[in-house]
Amino acid sequence: SWFHVQLLAQVDSTNRYLMQESARGVAHGTCVAAHLQTAGRGRRGRSWLSQLGGSLTFSVLWRFQCGAAGLSGLSLVVGLALVRALHAMGLTTVQLKWPNDLLVLHQGHWHKLGGILIELQGDMEGPSAAVIGIGLNLEIASELTAQIDQPVLGLNALSAQPINPNVLLGTCLSQLALHLSQFAESGFTHFQAAWTRYHAFHQQPVNLLLANGQTVPGQVLGVAEEGSLLVETAHGQQRFNAGEISVRSA
Ligand code: BTN
């Protein structure tokens, strides 16, 4: 099925813009991309910084028959769609960090290549709409690196030729369409094994940062069938939902 793609020269945030359009009834499959975001939003109330031409920033509206309660694992499935899109473009070293960051191991350190922010509309039971926001770094300006609190890298660093953002957007959208339709049919269970294959920290030692500021060491056991992270800690096997913890390689 077709996406309705709208390209804006500049917007505060494609997610904020599309949330507003969605409330006004804009069609399923609407995609808004922006050359420049002036107030990009990240997860956990953080901001997403980017520079003109330095990243691909877009949001997609996907309407679901089910309520928000049925959408657990959605953000993982979006990550899987993107990692497959990047692999299809020859960037085969890209991996996933739970719940949905795109990472690459570069010069011995994990670097973030992009992130996903999903915002939901509708209640837990009735039909719902997801605004799926995606930011992919192409080129990181050195001024930006100084403002970001973790190692980041642009996709161009992994590619012999500069990546064409039109091709990248088209490849991401086609993978998203496949994955989101399948997710609406069968949920995350269908993707559990595939997701695990791309998981950067699968069966690795990690440190978990809890919301209260505590750090807990553990070993990743895998992802559960609804998308939560399973970790072996000193207190035994524990299960975490997205938003409860943040994961660092140990
Ligand atoms: C994260 O890693 O914290 C998520 C970053 C998501 C950024 C994208 S850029 C397009 C869309 N619009 C936004 O304001 N945020 C998302």
Automatic annotation (TrEMBL):
Q: Which BP terms does GO give this entry? A: regulation of DNA-templated transcription
Top-level EC class, please? ligase
The UniProt record lists the keyword ATP-binding: yes
Record's Gene Ontology CC terms?
A: cytoplasm
Function noted in UniProt: Acts both as a biotin--[acetyl-CoA-carboxylase] ligase and a repressor.
Please tell me the species this chain comes from: Methylophilus medardicus
Q: Which GO molecular function entries does the Swiss-Prot or TrEMBL record give?
A: ATP binding; biotin--[biotin carboxyl-carrier protein] ligase activity; DNA binding
Q: Which residues form a coiled coil?
A: none
User: Residue ranges of the BPL/LPL catalytic domain?
Assistant: 1-184
Reactions mediated catalytically: biotin + L-lysyl-[protein] + ATP = N(6)-biotinyl-L-lysyl-[protein] + AMP + diphosphate + H(+)
Which family does the record claim for this protein? Belongs to the biotin--protein ligase family.
> Keywords assigned by UniProt?
ATP-binding, Biotin, DNA-binding, Ligase, Nucleotide-binding, Repressor, Transcription, Transcription regulation
Enzyme Commission code(s) on record:
6.3.4.15
Q: What is this protein called?
A: Bifunctional ligase/repressor BirA
Binding locations of biotin:
S13, T14, N15, Q37, R41, G42, R43
Would I find Ligase among this entry's keywords? yes
